[in-house]
Design a protein that fits this description.
Layout: E1 7-13, H1 17-28, E2 33-36, E3 51-52, E4 57-58, H2 59-72, E5 76-79, E6 82-90, E7 93-100, H3 115-119, E8 123-124, E9 135-136, E10 138-140, E11 150-152, H4 162-166, E12 179-190, E13 194-196, E14 213-215, H5 216-222, E15 243-250, H6 277-291, E16 296-301, H7 311-321, E17 324-335, E18 343-349, E19 354-360, E20 362-367, E21 369-371, E22 409-411, H8 421-444
Parallel strand pairs: 1-2, 1-12, 2-5, 12-22, 14-20, 15-16, 15-20, 16-17
Antiparallel strand pairs: 3-4, 6-7, 7-12, 8-9, 10-11, 13-21, 17-18, 18-19
Bound molecules: flavin-adenine dinucleotide (FAD).
Length: about 450
């Protein structure tokens, strides 16, 4: 079977850390894999991160070699900027209908020189930097993108075509059309990850209303080596913050979220623990103590859940470094009306039972994990079951967590529930191994 053929051993959907790991595991076993990613680059959320708990290894240093290996592996065909439209199981084979959306830039001609980006006059929202700095309507998604090529956001482009004039290899093509593909696969691995809770659905926290209330992904970008500014600066005035608060469980363990849109699958609340927020907040607090040695960092929490290997020690290390942990649920955040754009947090201190108000100059909301199971709607003649919160339902959580309700369809990473990176990688290995066994049995029968 060649990689140009239309039949693959496995279709892996999603190019985050879990999808890459599943695809690489299968490819190393000599299976032919088609990896489909909806964004213009693979990488998922991990490529946005600064460092990772509990080792504080640089996230990009771990994930970029894996992205290169995935993109270049002789047994993996990678399609980015691609939609999965329909998956039909017939006679033991999955028939898949895909659309490769046009980037309006020919990948084989683009050299990644970014001259087009320099001349483009249109600034649009910047997904990689969590909308903190903006990017051009034609741009490379981020410096570590793979494939590293420019792409045009055609909806936002004003079609001045200045980019065409500066592109020496003539890579830009405004007539590029969507490409529809039909392929077959013997198995499918769903690795479509998760959505972050949109903190606007907790209006009492003021996200989107007060500039100095940010979310944790924005803070991970502010402290990453590929960060947008050369220091941690607060949005309202570019001041270096010196009194930062973390609000844990922002959109997790919370049954009071009334706006149904907050949950992608229509649930009206998010009662579960997102499993990663305590640890990523403790990680960020430690990194901030290094980046801003004079700053005070306070973490407001209900419980600290440091459940993994080395996590409790990591928590203790943060305490030892001087991070202030306060047991109390934040009820409301308001902005001071003295023109400072500082924030006042109102909370009940659980240890004393007293209501308190305290001032901080930057607040980070440790936002939770929500499901994104929209991919299940593409399976038209069989149903991939989801759980009551919209995550992919494992066929048997304890015995075979990587199996789903459809034989031959497996799940990896946070698509089946909140997971940190080590657990996402473990589950991706399990999904690849289950898929390999399934493909072998098909061939033997
Ligand atoms: C602020 C923050 C900090 C964190 N810090 C840490 C840390 O320090 N250590 C740690 O262990 N974990 C950390 N995590 C958790 C970590 O991000 C996750 O464990 C990891 O991203 C899960 O990987 P995944 O591949 O399952 O999902 P994702 O990273 O969400 O990747 C899913 C991929 O699938 C693609 N996709 C989705 N739908 C489709 C579709 N229909 N078709 C094609 N492609 C699709 C997406 O575009 C994406 O590329 C952090 C998370 C956050 C939010």
């Amino acid at each position: 079977m060649s990689l140009d053929s239309t039949t693959y051993d496995a279709l892996v959907i999603g190019g985050g850390i879990a999808g890459q790991e599943s695809a690489l595991n299968l490819a190393e076993m000599n299976y032919k894999v088609l990896l489909v990613e909806k964004d213009v680059s693979i990488g998922g959320k991990m490529i946005q991160l600064s460092k990772v708990f509990p080792t504080l290894d640089c996230a990009a240093c771990i994930t970029t070699p894996k992205m290169s290996e995935t993109a270049r592996h002789p047994n993996i065909r990678l399609l980015t900027n691609t939609d999965v439209n329909e998956i039909v199981k017939d006679n033991g084979l999955f028939h898949i209908n895909l659309t490769v959306r046009p980037t309006y830039v020919h990948a084989d001609l683009c050299t990644g020189c970014q001259l087009c980006e320099e001349v483009c006059p249109k600034v649009i929202e910047d997904k990689y930097n969590s909308n903190m700095v903006g990017q051009k309507a034609i741009s490379i998604a981020f410096s570590l993108a793979n494939p590293k090529m420019a792409a045009i956001d055609i909806e936002q482009c004003i079609k001045c075509k200045k980019c065409v004039k500066v592109c020496a290899p003539n890579a830009i093509d405004f007539d590029m059309q969507p490409q529809n593909l039909r392929v077959e696969a013997k198995s499918v691995v769903i690795a479509t990850g998760f959505n972050l809770f949109d903190a606007k659905h907790k209006p009492q926290y003021g996200f989107g209303q007060y500039p100095n209330v940010i979310n944790a992904m924005q803070m991970d970008r502010l402290i990453a080596p590929t960060r947008p500014y050369n220091s941690v600066l607060r949005p309202s005035d570019g001041k270096v913050p010196d009194n930062i608060a973390y609000v844990l469980c922002a959109g997790s363990r919370d049954s009071s979220i009334e706006n149904a849109e907050a949950c992608t699958n229509g649930c009206a609340n998010n009662p579960i623990c997102s499993q990663i927020c305590c640890m990523y907040s403790i990680k960020q607090a430690q990194l901030l103590m290094g980046a801003l040695p004079m700053a005070d960092i306070t973490i407001y929490y209900m419980d600290i859940r440091a459940f993994g290997k080395g996590y409790e020690e990591f928590y203790m290390q943060a305490k030892g470094m001087g991070v202030n942990f306060v047991k109390g649920k934040i009820a409301k955040i308001t902005e001071k009306n003295d023109g400072s754009a500082d924030l006042v947090l109102r909370y009940e201190d659980v240890t004393t039972g007293k209501l308190k108000e305290v001032k901080h100059d930057l607040v980070v909301l440790s936002v939770g994990v929500l499901s994104d199971s929209s991919i299940t709607q593409t399976f038209t003649n069989q149903k991939v079951e989801i759980d009551n919160l919209g995550f992919i339902q494992s066929a048997h959580e304890l015995v075979s967590p990587a199996k789903t309700s459809i034989e031959g369809v497996f799940v990896a990473g946070a698509a089946s529930g909140p997971k940190d990176i080590p657990d996402s990688i473990l589950s991706a290995g399990a999904a690849a191994s289950e898929a390999a066994g399934y493909i072998n049995n098909l061939s033997a029968n």
